[in-house]
Structure formats: C-alpha cells, structure tokens
C-alpha cells in the first residue's frame, strides 16, 4: 500500500500518473474522433475525453478525477461485453491496461485533497484489491489453452481406406507415402508414454541460414539411412540410430537469393516393375538412388549407399534443368520441393520469382527417366503440343502457372496430382492468357505415363491475391456413408478452404458452390464475378474481419488497428487490389501453406494447421513506383511487377507493436472427421515464449496461438507431432482431443514438418529440422531426433 509521507515524493507520483492518464486520454480522444469520421466506433472519443478530464483533475489532486476514471472503466466494461461478449482475448485487449491504471489510481487516492477525515482509504484499497485479484485471475487464465472447438463426446471415428499405403518403418516419400498423408504405422510411442520422450541425437549441417535462406528439410528414412539436404543443396546421409554422417555430396550450387531444400527423393530398382521384369538393367552401383535438385536448377542422382554420382544419369549424375527454359536470371527458377519419384520417372516443377516481372520462366512440369536422366515427357500448359523438348529455337511458354509445391500420385489410377501456382505477377492479371487463367491456383491430374491432362479443378478464378495452391494433396478413400468408400483427394489452400474431390474425375465429393465476390479494382484488369467455396467441408480461420475484431495489447494499439481497418478497403474475402489500400484476409501466407496436412488413416481424421494474418496491398502506377524505387521484393515491401502498368506496395496487417491486428489466435491445429466432415477439435498453436511485441521474446508460455509454418504428422498410436510454431518446441498432441501431451525444447524454431521411423535397433524416432523461424534473427542448422529411453 502507498505510504509516501514526503510531500515531494507523493506530488511527483501523482503528477507522473496523471500525465500518463492524460496522454492516454488525449490519444483515445483524438484517435477516436478520427475513427468516427471514418465511420467507426463511438467508444474511444467520449471515453478518451472522460479519461483526459480525469487525468487533469488527478494532477490537481482532485478526488473527483478518480471517480471519473472509474466511471470510464465501468463504461468500458459494459461496452466491451456488448461488443465482444465474454470472449477472453478481446476483453483483455479492452480492459487489462485500463484496469492496471485503475489499481494505481486507487492506491494513491488517499494522497489526494479530500476534506479532512473524508479520505476513503479503506474502500479505495479494497477496490484496488478486487481489481488486482481480477488481474491475477486474468493472468492465470492467459496461460490456460483456450480451445476454439472442443467436442466432449464426438461420434466414434469411421475410418476410410488408405491410398498407396506402405506398411513398415520407412519414410520413403516427402509425405511418407505417394498419398501425402504423413501418417506412420509406428505405435511404440503412445499417448501413455510420450511424456518420456527425450533427445536421442543431434546432427548439425554446418550451414546456418542467413537472411532469406531456410533450413526446412524433412528427411527420408530408406535403405537404413536418413537422407536430407541443406539450403545450399548439399546432400547427406545419416546413421538413423545416432545421427552420425555417413556421406555427404556437394554439387557446388550457387547464384540464388532464396535458397532452400525441403527434401530429397528415393528410388529402389528392386521395387520398379520394369526392372523386376528385366526390361531395364540398371547399373549395379546405383540400384538405389537419392534424387535431389539444386538451387541453380539442376537434378542430381546419387548412389544411396555411397553418395557417389550415378554416372549413367545425365552428365556424370547431373541433369541441367535449364534445357528448354530459355534465358532467365539466376535464381528466377529452381525447385524448392522434393522431386517426386513415380514408377521409373522423376517429376519436377519449380519456384519462380514472384511479382518481379512478366515473362518469367515457364511453369512447365517435366518427367525424367530415373536411370538415364533423359526427358520422357513435359506438360507445358501454355502449349500442350509440346510434349518433350521445345522445337529448336523455341522454349516452353514463359509466365505460366508453376508447381512449386509437392505433387501426390495414385499409381493404381495412373494419375499424378499437381498443385499449381499463379501466373506471375500475382496482383495484376490483365495480361494473362486464357490458359494461364484456366490452370492457375488449381489441382491438375496428369497421366503418369504420358504427362497428358486428365482433369483439373480450380480453387480461385483469375487469382489476383497470390492464393496459389501451396500444399501437397492428400489421397484417402473417404467413407461414403453407405458402408463403402470414395477415392478422394483432399486439398488445403491458403484461403483456409478445404476441397474434397473425387480423384478419378476431379468432381467435388463435398459440395462446392460459386459465390458472388467483391468487384472492381483497376480498370485495366478484371475480377471474376464468383469464386468457389467448399461449403461441404469446414473452412478454417476464414471468419470475415470487422472493426470489433481489431485487437491490441492495449486500447491504444487496438485503436490504431481500427483506424487502419477503416481506412483500407475491405469487403470480405477477395477484396480486389486497387490504388486504395486493400486488406487480404486470409493473406498469402495462409490459411494453410506448404507444410501440408496429415490424415490419421486408421481413424479418418484430417489434421490441418493454419496461419491467420491479413495483408495490406496497394497498386502503384508504373511511373510513380519506378520513380520512388520501392523495392524488388516478392511479398513484404515493394514488388515491381515489371511489364505491367503497376507496381505493388505490401505489408502485413500488424499493429505498431508488430502483432496481427485481429484478435488471437493467429495459428491453430484442427482435427476434422472425414466421415462427418465436421471439426472435432481446434486449438491454438504456439506461445509467446520466444517472440512477442516488436519481435522481443516475452519468455511467457501463454498459448495465444501464433502463425504456423510447417505441418503435422500422425501415428497409429493416436499422436499428432508438430513443430512449425514461433516458439522453439516440437509438440505431441492427443489426436482424440488436441490436448498437449509433451513438448521437446529445440535450440531454435522448427518451421518444417517432422517425420518418424523405427530403426533396426527397434527404437522409434521422431525427427525435426530446426533452422529458426522468420520472426527472429536466431537461426540454426540442426536435425534433432527424439526417442523413448532405451
């Protein structure tokens, strides 16, 4: 309690507190008046006026100032309940900081100029104590996970049927199987014993990422080795039981400003029907091969046992992916995703430099013979007549939608499924060809043998928001409700929409409807009048923004977010880019991103993680953009979009403290029952332990739920493993409830998807790459394995 007896000290305390209150009040008053002129809430201006008067009176040591402030606090409480109900984090934003001021005011109340004998010391201290207890309770609740959805008694799961299931302990593909479900049959680690997991070994690549570099590899477990790659395209093999390096190959790749490698591929000739039937006789040295790409657009084949180049593949083990692509700038085309080995083919797409200019490298998809490296087929969506190399003097069609993520395939149906990107640049499409408009932001099924299209399904029409399809499709036979199954393809998207298609035909299994969307933008481009919505599946994190959803750690930064929201153009999803700042929500970082989904094949649950962060976007006329030289970036900041009439200015929709402007959570993990197509549970993912306002770590494990990047893995024992958060942990969750059962500390963030395998020693390992996350400058080069004690 306040016991200041010296007049000078008490005066200084009162003046300091009064000044702070006046500053807060004036800010709320002036900002609130501006907000009213924008058509926003009337709360801030009158409340700010009352708080300002209260602060002035307190500075004059008038007790009525305290009463005025408490009236403002009570009014704020009533207004908050009216606007957001009893939702925890929105109430914290509105009331916590004002309540802290109230405590200090009540504690110094006896120092004010009451008439003799009138100072209400006991009642002031009692009121302060009540508010302190409320603040303590709020702080306690802030550390308790707040599930978004929690089914107390969900219906018993009805499992479907795995597609392309590969029993055993290995992890042979980027998504474990060709179906991309990231489901492991392993059951040694269970919900009952997972709390005993501990670090088994650590491998360091020796390459710590800097700037835009990223260490995000998901290793493979095959041939009793772990195979992976570094961001500079070095390929390595590890002993899966102790993490010691067996071999390493350096292709000496260079010339890239966005280097990363998400994975490698594995080929075993003994599993190739063409080899088994003796129609092909591969070299003895490379019967098992590790296939990788490089950041300077080459394809590499190595002997899986020794790491030596396969001399019968291309030129001494290397195929140049520049062939047929024409001339392009270094780094403007290269694959980041793992190559896809299907039958005796290696299928590759590639990343292009978004938003820099028109006519960027082609989005052509190519298949190469896994033995010789010779081109077998090509799918050039801009010129389907080109089925291999282009005629001499020509090239594949430039500027077409690319496939930068990972395909899945169904060997029985003979189809490979491609998630396509957008025709660059992303935010103006007046120049796009009909073919580019047809295939961008789609799922395309090609015949594995010929590379010819069988069907395609588009998730966004005339995409002007960078809503390219970033994640690997997941293949699973879903229950049809009649005791049978339907062969499905489940595609997650940046929009937070989840499409369930018949993978034989591309027809929706879960209902899709076209809905009218906002129109307008700029006169030299068009906007599709409708867009597809997957109404038969849950959408994740897509609740439209409104002013009452704006958030901040205090009412002040919340007010700034409200003003920015009102100043911008926002008419819901698909608000078109224009010369006025527009808000894209979800933004181009997600919804769901390249980490992809997982399907617990034994119970039929789909696991998805998402990010919830808006983007501010404004088109700038060419002459003005070039004069101001606002940058050559691809997303954050300026992007030139050369060859179009417009450059673009962009930023994430954040408060002045660097926090997303809408209320938490900003990232979740969600389980969806594929039989009922309903959410079973949804929980926030990630805490502010290793990040916080202005990127400063708060060191508090408050489960706010932060943007995620990376994906989940499920196991037959009923676990979900996931890192991908902005705090430095790998977590294990109960697949039935979403409850956290264990978390293992990482030295830096792990923005990638884990994997699991059982080695020859009988131990099940869970492995994650930890390279750091984009919210902090702290990076790493770790691959870490966890296991139960021996």
What does this structure look like?
Helix content is 18%, strand content 26%. The protein has nine helices and 42 strands. A hairpin with a 5-residue loop joins strand 40 and strand 41. Helix 3 runs antiparallel to helix 4. It is globular. The model has no long low-confidence stretch (mean pLDDT 93).
β-sheet strand percentage: 25-35%
Strand tally is 42
* CATH domain class of the largest domain: Mainly Beta
Profile the largest sheet: 5 strands, antiparallel
Q: Report the total helices.
A: 9
> Poorly predicted ranges (pLDDT <50, ≥5 residues)?
none
Helical percent range? 10-25%
- Shape label: globular
**What is the CATH homologous superfamily assignment of the largest domain?**
Quinoprotein alcohol dehydrogenase-like superfamily
First-to-last CA distance: 56 Å
Q: In order across it, which strands form the biggest sheet? A: 1-35-34-30-29
Instruction: Supply Rg.
Output: 29 Å
Compact overview of the structure:
By secondary structure, the protein is α+β, with helices and mostly antiparallel strands.
Characteristics:
790 residues; alpha+beta; Methanol Dehydrogenase, Chain A; 18% helix
Tell me the layout of helices and strands.
Elements: H1 7-37, H2 44-59, H3 64-84, H4 88-108, H5 121-142, E1 149-150, E2 161-162, E3 183-184, E4 198-204, E5 220-222, E6 225-229, E7 235-238, E8 245-249, E9 265-268, H6 273-276, E10 288-293, E11 298-303, E12 318-320, E13 333-334, E14 340-342, E15 345-348, E16 351-352, E17 365-369, E18 375-379, E19 408-410, E20 415-419, H7 434-439, E21 442-447, E22 453-458, E23 474-479, E24 485-492, E25 498-502, E26 513-516, E27 530-533, H8 555-567, E28 582-584, E29 598-600, E30 605-611, E31 615-621, H9 622-628, E32 637-639, E33 646-652, E34 667-673, E35 678-684, E36 713-715, E37 719-722, E38 729-734, E39 740-745, E40 755-758, E41 764-772, E42 779-787
Parallel strand pairs: 3-36
Antiparallel strand pairs: 1-35, 2-23, 4-42, 5-6, 6-7, 7-8, 9-10, 10-11, 11-12, 13-16, 14-15, 15-17, 17-18, 19-20, 20-21, 21-22, 23-24, 24-25, 26-27, 28-31, 29-30, 30-34, 31-33, 32-33, 34-35, 36-37, 37-38, 38-39, 40-41, 41-42
Helix pairs in contact: 1-2, 1-4, 1-8, 2-3, 3-4, 4-5
């Amino acid at each position: 309690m306040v016991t200041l007896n010296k007049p000078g000290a008490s005066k200084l305390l009162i003046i300091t507190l009064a000044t702070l209150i006046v500053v807060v009040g004036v800010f709320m008053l002036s900002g609130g008046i501006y907000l009213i002129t924008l058509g926003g809430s009337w709360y801030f201006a009158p409340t700010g006026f009352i708080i300002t008067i209260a602060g002035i009176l307190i500075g004059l040591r008038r007790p009525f100032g305290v009463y005025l402030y408490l009236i403002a606090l009570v009014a704020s409480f009533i207004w908050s309940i009216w606007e957001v109900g009893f939702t925890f984090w929105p109430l914290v934003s509105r009331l916590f900081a004002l309540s802290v001021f109230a405590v200090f005011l009540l504690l110094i109340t006896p120092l004010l100029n009451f008439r003799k004998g009138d100072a209400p010391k006991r009642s002031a201290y009692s009121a302060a104590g009540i508010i302190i207890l409320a603040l303590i309770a709020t702080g306690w609740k802030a550390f308790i996970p707040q599930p978004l959805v929690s089914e107390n008694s969900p219906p018993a799961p009805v499992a479907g049927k795995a597609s392309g299931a590969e029993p055993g302990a290995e992890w042979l593909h980027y998504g474990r199987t060709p179906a991309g479900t990231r489901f492991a049959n392993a059951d040694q680690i269970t919900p009952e014993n997972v709390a005993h997991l501990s670090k088994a070994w650590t491998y360091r690549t020796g390459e710590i990422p800097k700037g835009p570099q990223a260490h995000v590899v998901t290793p493979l477990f095959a041939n009793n080795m772990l195979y992976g790659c570094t961001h500079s395209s070095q390929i390595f093999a590890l002993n899966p039981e102790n993490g010691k390096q067996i071999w390493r190959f350096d292709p000496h790749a260079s010339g890239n400003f966005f280097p990363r490698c998400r994975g490698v591929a594995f080929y075993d000739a003994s599993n190739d029907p063409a080899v088994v039937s003796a129609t092909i006789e591969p070299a003895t040295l490379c019967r098992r091969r590790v296939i990788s790409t490089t950041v300077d657009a080459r394809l590499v084949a190595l002997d899986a046992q020794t790491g030596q180049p396969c001399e019968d593949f291309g030129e001494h083990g290397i195929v140049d992916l520049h062939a047929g692509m024409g001339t392009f700038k270094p780094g403007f085309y290269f694959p980041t995703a793992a190559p896809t080995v299907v039958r005796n083919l290696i299928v590759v797409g590639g990343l292009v430099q978004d938003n820099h200019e028109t006519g960027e490298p082609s989005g052509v998809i190519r298949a190469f013979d896994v033995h010789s490296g010779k081109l077998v087929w090509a799918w050039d969506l801009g010129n389907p007549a080109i089925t291999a190399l282009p005629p001499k003097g020509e090239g594949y069609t430039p500027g077409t939608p690319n496939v930068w993520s990972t395909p899945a395939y169904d060997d029985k149906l003979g189809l490979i499924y491609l998630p396509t990107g957008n025709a660059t640049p992303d935010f103006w499409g007046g120049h796009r060809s009909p073919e580019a408009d047809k295939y961008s932001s789609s799922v395309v099924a090609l015949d594995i043998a010929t590379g010819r299209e069988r069907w395609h399904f588009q998730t966004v029409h005339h995409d002007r928001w960078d809503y390219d399809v970033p994640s690997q499709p997941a293949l699973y036979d879903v229950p049809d409700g009649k005791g049978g199954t339907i062969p499905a393809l489940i595609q997650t998207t940046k929009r937070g929409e989840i499409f369930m298609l018949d993978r034989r035909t591309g027809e929706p299994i879960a209902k899709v409807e076209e809905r009218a969307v906002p129109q307008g933008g700029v006169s030299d481009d068009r906007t599709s009048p409708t867009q597809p919505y997957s109404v038969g599946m849950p959408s994740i994190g897509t609740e439209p923004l409104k002013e009452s959803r704006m958030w901040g750690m205090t009412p002040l930064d919340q007010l700034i977010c409200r003003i920015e929201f009102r100043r911008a153009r926002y008419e819901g999803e698909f608000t078109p880019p224009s010369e006025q700042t527009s808000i894209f929500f979800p933004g181009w970082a997600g919804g769901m991103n390249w980490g992809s989904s997982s399907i617990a094949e034994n119970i039929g649950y789909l696991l998805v993680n998402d990010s919830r962060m808006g983007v501010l976007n404004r088109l700038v006329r060419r002459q003005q953009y070039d004069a101001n030289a606002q940058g050559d970036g691809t997303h954050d900041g300026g992007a030139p979009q050369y060859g179009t009439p417009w450059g673009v200015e962009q930023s994430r929709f954040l408060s002045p403290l660097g926090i997303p402007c809408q209320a938490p959570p900003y990232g979740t993990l969600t389980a969806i029952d594929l039989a009922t197509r309903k959410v079973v549970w949804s929980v926030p993912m990630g805490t502010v332990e290793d990040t916080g306002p202005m990127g400063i770590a708060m060191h508090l494990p408050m489960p706010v739920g932060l943007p995620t990047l990376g994906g989940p893995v499920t196991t037959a024992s009923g676990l979900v493993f996931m890192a991908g958060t902005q705090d430095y942990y790998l977590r294990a969750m109960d697949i039935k409830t979403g409850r956290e059962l264990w978390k293992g500390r990482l030295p830096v963030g792990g923005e990638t998807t884990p994997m699991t395998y059982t080695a020859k020693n009988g131990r099940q390992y869970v492995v994650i790459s930890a390279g750091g996350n984009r919210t902090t400058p702290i990076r790493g080069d770790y691959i870490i394995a966890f296991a139960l004690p021996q």
